[in-house]
Design goal:
Beta-Lactamase, Helix Hairpins, 17 strands, rod-shaped, single chain, five-stranded antiparallel sheet, alpha+beta, 4 domains
């Protein structure tokens, strides 16, 4: 805007300057410079130019800021005090070429002032009249060429009014300037506000993006943590979606079922899951499902020839509106817990038997010794052919049998002192078979022994372990009254920590209701049996940190499983 105002002011001043020079030349042609006629001519030019509505005033002033010509003729001859710096030398000593600035003048208000100094006349070469008065033309031109600078300086100084410095001053109306400037300022303000809003919007967008990234990262971290937590939990987790497809199958569930999660994920739950577990996901009524969820139930599975006990609990997943989202089956392996419960019950039973045995030994053994002594005295009183002699002999025999029973009870009750040594089980099993060979031959029983070629050794008491093996073998022989087969299988466990021994007979088997009572003292299914053999065998195996169990099916034989830890 300033450049536009300055351009217009400069144009007006050039017009004034050109008109002033033209008037000066016209006076020179008429024979000399006439100040009055020159002033009038300049005044006419100013009057003509002041018709522009944007021109508030236009004037020509001399060095003393005295007005020579003015749009308001009343001000001709006055001195403008606010223009005292016009035509004044600057610090370098030269005159300023152009002055412009907004200024406030009484009677005009705020105007845009433009002032430019000018000389009425500064010719580029001498006028023709001077050349005509200086001799012939050829010599005059030659003289002028040789003395050009000196001649011009002398000529300029000699011309009337040549050294008079004037200034053209234009005052332009700033109403349009201010209005445009105000409009531009408003536009600049609106643009600034727009840019501010854009910047604020950009900042908010960046903040939202940053917040989104932080939220995404937090969500990703939570998902990673939840995934890691679910995968590492010791509880098996099998989750399905609304369609019944597996969405979660953690590491514990994979170990319990021996099914890798990669095979199960995305598949229908009943495709890979064992039937007993898949049955949990069958459609149920809400009431029955809620009751089942609150308690759960136990399930026994055989995985890789091993039986495990799982506590299973099904949970429905529903959104806040109650819409079905899927199901989660929680699996807890309680096999070890069940084993500990069984061991605890067995220990309680053994403790009861021990207390009973100690009482029997104390209360019965001393009177029994007296009875045996009296029977020996009576036996000597009778002849060998008499009936009394036979009766006293029977009395002594029964007393000795009672004493043996009490000794067995005492050995069952008191802690065993084991003579541990490295045992080759294949050799010990062969010896045990050899010891019962007479019984198996008399009953027409075929025996066999199969052991792994790298069967591990165990640390055990040889005599006690032989007692257990012979007792199991004799039980098997007694179960086959009409002949059969008796097999012994010995192998290393898959974990390599135990040796598993199986005694398999083809006898008549045991009824299911008797299986849980086999290891109770004095429980027997044989006529004439004491019922103490298996109880003592179990105690010996437990003392060796092993396990013994029996599986039987009536009419199809019995299998006794003995598991002993390998020697370290």
């Amino acid at each position: 805007m300033t450049d536009a105002m300055l351009q217009k002011g400069s144009t007006l001043m050039r017009v004034v300057g050109s008109g002033a020079r033209s008037a000066y030349l016209a006076d020179l042609r008429r024979g000399g410079w006439n100040t009055g006629s020159w002033d009038e001519y300049v005044q006419r030019i100013i009057t003509h130019l002041s018709e522009d509505p944007e021109v508030r005033f236009l004037m020509v002033v001399d060095k003393q800021s005295r007005v020579i010509a003015h749009t308001d003729k009343k001000k001709i001859g006055t001195v403008v005090k606010k223009l005292s710096d016009i035509n004044q030398p600057d610090e370098s000593g030269s005159r300023p070429a152009l002055i412009y600035r907004p200024i406030t003048i009484d009677g005009y208000g705020k105007i845009f002032l433009v002032a430019r100094p000018f000389l009425p006349f500064r010719p580029a070469r001498p006028p023709l009249q001077f050349l005509k008065q200086s001799g012939d033309k050829k010599s005059k031109m030659q003289y002028f060429s040789q003395n050009k600078l000196h001649l011009l300086d002398r000529f300029h100084k000699g011309l009337p009014g040549a050294n008079h410095m004037y200034s053209a001053v234009v005052g332009l109306d700033m109403h349009g300037y201010d209005k445009s400037l105000q409009r531009l300022r408003f536009q600049a303000l609106m643009l600034s506000l727009t840019m501010l809003l854009v910047g604020l919007g950009g900042w908010l967008s960046l903040a939202a993006v940053q917040g989104y990234r932080v939220s995404q990262k937090a969500l990703s971290d939570i998902q990673a943590f939840a995934g890691l937590l679910v995968s590492r939990l010791p509880v098996g987790i099998i989750a399905t979606d609304q369609q019944g497809r597996v969405s979660t199958w953690n590491h514990a569930a994979a170990e319990m079922t021996s099914i890798p999660s990669k095979r199960a994920l995305g598949k229908m739950v009943n495709k890979y899951l064992p039937a007993d577990l898949a049955a949990f996901f069958l459609p149920q009524s809400s009431a029955r499902l809620t009751e089942a969820n609150s308690k759960g139930r136990e399930t026994r599975l055989v995985i890789n020839d091993f039986e495990i006990v799982l506590h299973c609990q099904l949970i429905d997943l529903r959104d806040p509106n109650g819409n079905f989202m899927g199901q989660v089956l929680l699996l807890s392996d309680i096999t070890r817990l069940k084993g500990l419960e069984s061991e605890m019950r067995e220990n309680e039973r053994l403790a009861a038997v021990g207390r009973m045995a100690a009482g029997v030994a104390h209360e019965v053994r001393n009177p029994l010794s007296s009875i045996k002594g009296l029977a020996l005295l009576l036996k000597d009183k009778f002849s060998k052919e008499s009936r009394e002699f036979e009766t006293t002999g029977l009395l002594i025999q029964e007393a000795e049998r009672m004493n043996r029973t009490i000794s067995e009870l005492l050995s069952f009750a008191r802690p065993a002192s084991l003579d541990l040594q490295s045992i080759d089980l294949q050799e010990l099993l062969s010896e045990s078979l050899q010891l019962v060979s007479a019984d198996t031959a008399s009953e027409h029983i075929l025996t066999s022994l199969h052991c792994d070629h790298d069967l591990a050794k165990v640390l055990a008491d040889r005599d006690r372990l032989s007692q257990v093996f012979i007792n199991i073998l004799l039980n098997g022989v007694q179960a086959m009254e009409h002949g059969g087969t008796l097999k012994i299988l010995a192998r290393n466990s898959r974990s390599g920590k135990h040796v598993e021994i199986q005694f398999i007979d083809s006898g008549k088997g045991i009824s299911p209701e008797y299986l849980s009572q086999l290891f109770f003292p004095y429980f027997t299914t044989k006529s004439g049996g004491t019922g103490i053999g298996l109880a003592i065998s179990q105690k010996i195996i437990v003392d060796h940190c092993g396990t013994i169990r029996v599986e039987s099916e009536q009419g199809r034989g019995t299998t006794v499983f003995v598991e002993l830890p390998v020697q370290r």
